[in-house]
């Protein structure tokens, strides 16, 4: 059978070389209780070869064995890709890559449901070779000699103290080779081989021991490689001789014949006129010109080579190996049959993410991705200020568009559909806010603001979190950043412009010194590299008088209307409260973080509990609850709680993953982390009962700043990017339905390193 290599999915995996069966036949039955299985350990990842569209990877497993591996990387469009590899493999060839392109590969090992890694390596695909067209004899200087290419390294034989190695050089010529490995004490050893050789026997090894061999080619003072393989020396078996054995007959290799073919395989057969070989090796080149090798046991006289291209000519070379010596090759040429299958239908295209990349007072610039396939056309749909649906058609080769004719300072929900073969795919949705037209201190955005390039910092939402008779507390979100600083602008009681600078690491500010019972318009700008982005705007009215509390100070323990701590973990506190009478539009929980900065958490009107996350372990916090109704703020009522120490187990309340059911209403299911890279996590969730109008994913970034992502109600997956490597994050998912917020359900995930 084919034990040398096989194709799996879009990648070609390389099997670990199997030891000769004769070399490990002495097994003593254990007389003691077997030791528990060794936990596998992930070693180093190495790029061992490249072509214009592929990279060959190899890795080590110093101990144990993994159930499977996962290789992750990003393609030329920046889309994450993953290739699964069986646990008994130690290498893979990733194909379908771009020529002359740098890729960073991350390898993870999986064992008993646990993930280890990543081990990382960077490789560059070879430049695409141009085929010269027939022309007149060139008078230019000759091109430099072609760079030699190192092929595959194979173990061709073993003894108790040696391993025989063989390799190929598909192109060019090396000055010399070196074989490197580590002895039993971990010390590196080097064997030098002449450039005209293609095999060597490495001696002085330990019996019954696994060795990882690395082959390098030396050319013009540069080192190419390595090509790597695993080998196992034979176990020493000493049987006292009873008679003088006759010298063994030296085997002889006969003829190689192609016995049959199919669209993807060739069947080979050969003869051995005398003796017996330890094993055979069939070598050939695949459709891309890459050398391949298939190892066959010595007692076989035929093999079927599969994974070939239809209607393609292959030249097969057969080598026989005996006592570390190679004989051959015997050679034969075969042609695979033409394919009789009907061509598969083209792959269904996939619509990616839709993003707002820029705005002006009358336009929004949109950009999107197509991770797979190709669309015939796209349509962008939205509603104008009168609620009438509008449609913008875009050609299938485009990936961005500017939607014009919009109203200034207005929020729009954009839906993108892809059209393919008469069918509609999607939508991918996003929210965008047009700029304002006022040419003054409060709105310096020009009428034709140029679209910001992808990756530019971007603000998304400015909200009024709380008000008093002389202050307004504002909070905002940053879709992508960072900003150097922020600027809040407004006009005071006399109509004079005022500006409040805010540090770039903050997401909220309290504007004080305001007049009672007065309406204010606040504008928020983000500043980066002396360039101003925005603005976002929000209106607020200060209170006219001191309002009564939610509950009277006379009511203490167990009195209705009090705020209660219901549970704690090392990074969160659960709060619960009652409303003795009346109805509120919403609630706000306020507290101060470890730096003394005020934090605000808005809560929907139908909720009577909240989980405040992102806190410090074993720290005392004071929480203030306000009720908002008719533009007025009632409260606060207060409670104090101390987070659990780092090592404490989660409190029982944390096990609840959803809000209480509303009979017949929508209900969230489970939230899970389905994929990770060093700077992003992919979240997916289920809906036990639906539908929802939209979702909100909230989390705290590495600087303990709250972040939120708005997701369309038809989406159940989101890609959270811009994260820190090797960092644990906790995510909360809320579902929004008819103005109410349901949830949260939560999960934790850690980015790769």
TrEMBL record:
Listed SMART domains:
FN3 (SM00060)
Q: Among its keywords, does the record have Repeat?
A: yes
Specify where the region named Disordered lies, as residue ranges: 1-39, 113-161, 324-348, 636-664
Per its UniProt record, what InterPro entries does this chain match? ECM_Regulatory_Proteins (IPR050991), FN3_dom (IPR003961), FN3_sf (IPR036116), Ig-like_fold (IPR013783)
Q: Does the keyword Repeat apply?
A: yes
Where is composition skewed (Low complexity) in this entry?
132-141
Q: Which Pfam families match?
A: fn3
Which PANTHER family does the record associate with it? TENASCIN, TENASCIN-X
Q: What's the protein name?
A: Fibronectin type-III domain-containing protein
Organism, scientific name: Myotis lucifugus (Little brown bat)
